[in-house]
Input
Amino acid sequence: MAPLADLQLQSCIRSILADWYVTDAVTIKPVAEDWAARELSGFNVKALAKLMHQHVQAGGVIDQVRETRLAWNDRDYHYDFRIAWAGRALYVEGVTGPPLTASPGFPGFSRFSVLLARPFWDSAGNENPGGAGGSRTLVQ
Output
């Protein structure tokens, strides 16, 4: 995994996440939402979006990963976040989405869709709240 180096794309994702409070700026696939609702106390999409926003504002890493899975090969990359939810290590994988409306600053994207949310483990199989590049903890 390599940190996202494209400054325009970083800016685009930061801009999307800055709108964490706007409905549909960040969306989540049902399978990821079902897991998160079961496993994460107080989970809701806007709280996750806010946590992702806080992560990037604090200088947290977004990894850009070349997509090789056949089920997701409609795009070249997905983006990984390693954050903490109330002290629990969390891996969040997502993609940028097409604009809901015209966006002159970022004509290609105006949404971020979470595809997968699951615990993040280190190489020894332990949950790793720090992950690669640090973490942010949701204060509820």
Observations:
- The chain is about 25% helix and 25% strand.
